[in-house]
Amino acid sequence: MDSSTGKLIAEIPNSMPPFAFSPAGNVIAVDTREGILLWDLNAGQGLRLLNDSKGIFNYSGFWMRDRKTLVFSPDERSIVAARNTLKNESVFVLDVWATETGEKTTSLPVQPNTFEHTGTIAELAFAPGGELIASASWDHSVRLWDAHTGAPLAVLQSGEAAVDDVALSRDGRVATLSNNKVVQVFECKVCGSLADVRALARAHPPRQLTPDERRQLLAATTGAAR
User: Fold this and answer.
1) Which one-letter DSSP state was computed for residue 63?
2) Looking at domain 66-222, which CATH architecture does it have?
3) 189-201-106-96 Cα dihedral, nearest 10 degrees
4) What is the pLDDT, as a whole number, of residue 204?
5) Three-state DSSP class for 34?
């Protein structure tokens, strides 16, 4: 719908939240029964389905679809979705697609059988320059990711409450809103300098899960031990 005139611009069949506009505003990404669909608002037709995106958001009830868990990168080259469903022995990850082709390019964390978030990812945000991705989770943390390499860069702990929202400023500040209605603003070199963040990541590389940890994580997310 055109916000200035109230005129209906597009009606996308079999679609549901979450959805996201491209920065230019000419494409919208929406979830459908067949997966995430890119829809050209100017042409009034679908562009392409994102490969292997069916059922990404089928978790925790329909109320979770109100969350901002689907975003375009500022340069519109990538689309990122928070996947809280168990697939390929991974869960609580970020799936990334190339906008132009619809092909999945990676999942974060990149290294197999590693974990970062241990609870539902409730919100995603890119830094204005596009170099960082932030993911807010109910595991009481925000993770910062290198948008170019997919490397996990830093962890910001919110305390004793689940994190519902996150936003990044141009000068490196990270603001979070927890479900106890407390806003926290982090200001630090790690948040503001990509070089410092990458140096921190090299000093603390991800590790593989032990067999026991993998079983515990799978049991926690499926309700039964594998």
Assistant:
1) G
2) 7 Propeller (2.130)
3) -20
4) 46
5) coil
Instruction: Copy the structure tokens of residue 178.
Output: 């927890």
Structure tokens at 34: 């067949």
Instruction: Supply 179's token pair.
Output: 């479900």
Task: Give the integer Cα–Cα distance in Å for 37 and 34.
Answer: 8
How far apart are alpha carbons 85 and 72 in whole angstroms? 20
Both tokens assigned to 12: 């996308």
pLDDT at 161 over 60: yes
First-to-last CA distance in the chain? 47
Place of tokens 């936003």: 167
Rounded Cα gap, residues 37 and 51, in angstroms: 10
- In the predicted model, is pLDDT for residue 53 greater than 90? yes
211 and 219 Cβ atoms separated by less than 8 Å: no
Residue 11 β-bridge partners: none
Give the C-alpha separation, 87 to 98, whole Å: 20
| Position 30 pLDDT exceeds 90 | yes
How is residue 85 written in tokens? 């469903």
